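Reopening this ticket.

The earlier resolution said the output was attached, but the attachment link was broken on my side. Pasting everything inline this time so it's all in one place.
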Amino acid sequence: GIHLAPKEKVNIPVLFVPHAMKMYKAEVIVHVRKENGEKWTSEFSGGSNKDLNRNVFLAESGEIEGILWRYPVHGIPEAPQQKLVVVRCRARQRVEQRVEMLLMGVVPDATAVTDATNSDMVDRDNSANTQEVKVTDGSSATAEFLYELQYQSNEIRSQLESLVGMHLVQKEWDTESGIVTLIFNVVFAPNKPMRNEATLMIQWTAGGAWKFPLQFIATEPEVDDVINIEAVGLNKESIVGFKLTSQTR
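Inline output:
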């Protein structure tokens, strides 16, 4: 019963309140008809085009009585952002750190949707670092997850991507509490002082998503050597030489 003047706009609010960490699908349908009851003329027959026939209402005369616009809606629950994990290392050194990620609300009866790996999930084609992991509860029930390390900008990606590595070392699924535990081994080998952030994005193929912020801090490196210069006398120069070797081309 909403009246619209020519070129007038209408906002359609969509509220999403998920009860479980899985994808929900719906469809918003907008049905338009002329206020005065007139119809649109058309030269097509009702069975000639299935897609067109699905989006119009035809009168007995073959004229178009109403037009439908269909907007598919995919609701993907996202858990609140987790506590910041800090990985600290001195420049020109290497550190390995175990990081535990807890995924809340993984319910066994949430079945994965058939197109869960489409553009609504992690885009594997554009994310070469995306990894897949399967977690079982000890029986036939299996939960599949995708995870990748995301960066705020291409500049941060270029600084961190070759210095950071993540490897899944342990996984566990407690179906009673709905908690999946993923333990990663994080390797950080900075070559210079820096402070950058990244986000570990984990998505369940049934629709849930979790974000874990990571901060990588590289402090000043150790002193390479101490150079001692002995004076040969007042107002006379003393010179000492030392070699520097580049580690790359």
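Reporter confirms the inline version is readable. The domain at 77-107+144-221 is CATH 2.60.40.60 (Immunoglobulin-like). The two ends are 72 Å apart (CA to CA).
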